[in-house]
Amino acid sequence: MTKIVMGIESSCDETACALVNDQREILSSVVWSQYDEHRRFGGVVPEIAARAHLEKCDILIQEALNKAGKTFKDLSAVAVAGGPGLIGGVLVGVMTAKAIALCHNIPFIAVNHLEGHALTVRLSHPVAFPYLLLLTSGGHCQILVVEGVGQYKKLGGTIDDSAGEAFDKVAKMLEIGYPGGPNLEKRAREGAPAGISFPIPMKGRAGCDFSFSGLKTSVRVYIENHSPLSEQDKNNISAAFQEAVVKQMKDRLIHAIEIFKRDYPKAKDLVVAGGVAANTSVREMIQSLAKQNGLIFSAPPIQYCTDNGVMIAWAGMERHLLGLHDSFDFKARPRWPLDTL
Ligand code: KG4
Ligand code: ZN
Fold this sequence. Notes:
Number of domains: 2
Shape: globular
Mean pLDDT: 96
Structural class: alpha/beta
Strand order of the largest sheet: 3-2-1-4-5
Helix content: 40-55%
Bound molecules: 5'-O-[(R)-(carboxyoxy)(hydroxy)phosphoryl]adenosine, zinc ion
Strand content: 15-25%
Number of helices: 11
Low-confidence stretches: none
Number of strands: 10
Distance between the termini: 30 Å
Order of helices and strands: EEEHHEHEHHEEEHHHHEHEH
């Protein structure tokens, strides 16, 4: 019989629910972004996020069931992002999923949000373990070898901010609106980086770690020295900033690919995931890097790069098929590094 898993996501500023089956089909996916709630603060306010999740969670779950033409009785298991994330929101999702599991007598699965990002690509692409992954989102920027479900080897991570955070903060400094990443990408498309040279942190250094705070400071100083900015100045700064981010990612990935090829000579897949993986320049750079190194590039479809329910449902399905269920003792976690799974 076909297995169906529901996935609930509420760890940041998206409330989402989706149903997937073990034939790799998405039966439904609903995402409600809290942009309007947070816009006037220029960023996510945790208390407002938690309250909004609480208001919307039940509605979205019912909507996901309706869209799929299913009821709770059709579910084989319920999965939820159990962390890492803003604890108020994570709690809302975890308590809701536990209640569903208890009422309908189905397994409860606590998915690490990052594992959701890491495994989503396998829903749409034939990517086998192990694969090399750049996971770049609002809260994280790391390079991992995904050896299997629950098995991650970290090659490097950020020593300060994440890439998504840098996109969001630079967008805020440029006053080009929230959410920052997608707006900044649009601006960059209209701009030219020539004439502005921002530093490329970590470039040439050994290892696979990232750093974005120096770049952010350089952008701030540039803005201070060149204000008032015209709209075209903002576009050009966006383009120069994005170029510096992409160059850093390239430099770090070159090291990671060396390690990956040495330690996993038979492996062949290079994947990018997480919210920043929605960025076309980032995707194109990694695609060409894969080609140069004889690797196959894959990434989730753009709408499943930023937070969504499908990624939690799919990671839940992978766990369910392996019999990896959780007990009701599971506690929502604000921090939960992937390499400790
Ligand atoms: O994965 P995600 O939805 O949430 C976290 O797990 O953090 O990632 C959100 C981050 C935000 O920082 C957002 O600005 C960034 O991903 N982002 C982008 C783009 N779309 C989303 N950054 C650059 N270019 C984009 N197109
Ligand atoms: Zn995320």
